[in-house]
Amino acid sequence: MELGKRIAEIRKEHKLTQEEFAEICSVTRQTISNWENGKSYPDLETLVLISDTFDISLDAMLKGDRKMVSEITKEQKHGKHFAIKVIVAALITVLIVLGGIYYIESHESYIPYDESGITVTDNGIMYSDNTFYRHNEFQYITETVDNVNHCIVFTYLTSSIYSRHFEKQPNQKRMIENYAELKGQSVDDNDKLHDDVVTEVYYLPEKYVVDQDLMNNKHPDLIPADTSEQEQKGMIEQMKADSVLLWKRK
């Protein structure tokens, strides 16, 4: 027997109008009419409701209606596949988010000068507003002036140093480095600077940090050893021009 006819029989056996049966199933009277005329089918949840309410097994209601059984089977399969797709999509989304967080946290990046919190006072003391840690993102270049080697310091910050150390001590101003030595240590009896005394400090721009891969290789040569003296002077002057001057010995 077709399901529509079986639903009509159940309704009539319990002396219910289509309106009363519709109220039990939480649908409209027209829906009940469509079911009984075979124009549409109740969903599986409604079939279970009818089965429980009138104490009739699903097998008894569906027996002989192969089309309805086929429709329910399709709905069940579709529902299972949809649930699997939703779960897989959710897992992929979680993995993408976690991967993005891991990449951001583990990927080294350059900190611009205006975000570094670094300052150097007139007496050559380098401070950071946020750290007690003496960081090691420095590049030292020797510049020869009047046959005396002067040390030019190029400093910068990376995200790992900033996140591991700078942000752990907020609102504290601590010394990182002191470049101005005592006069007796930095000059000779004729007030001439000794060799390798720091004379200038600059904050290195991002293009140099990235091009030289300084975030992963902390101590490469910014100026190759085989560079001629003339080329070296030009490169140093260009780096100075591109960088932010933090301090210069008077």
Written account of the structure:
47% of the residues lie in helices and 18% in strands. With 250 residues, it is an alpha+beta fold. The chain has two domains: 3-73, lambda repressor-like DNA-binding domains (434 Repressor (Amino-terminal Domain)); 110-248, no CATH class. The chain has a four-stranded mixed beta sheet, covered by helices on one side. Strands 2-3-7 form a three-stranded antiparallel beta sheet. The protein has a two-stranded antiparallel ribbon with strand order 1-6. Strand 4 (138-145) and strand 5 (148-155) form a beta hairpin. The longest helix has 41 residues, at 66-106. The chain is rod-shaped.
Calculate the mean pLDDT score and round it: 77
The tally of beta strands, per DSSP, is: 9
* Gap between N and C termini: 105 Å
Q: Any idea what the shape is?
A: rod-shaped
Order of helices and strands: HHHHHHEHEEEEEHEHEHHE
Report the major sheet. Answer: 4 strands, mixed
Put simply, the count of helices is: 11
Structural class: alpha+beta
Radius of gyration: 40 Å
What share of the residues lie within helices?
40-55%
- Biggest sheet strand line-up: 4-5-8-9
For the record, the count of structural domains works out to 2
Low-confidence stretches: none
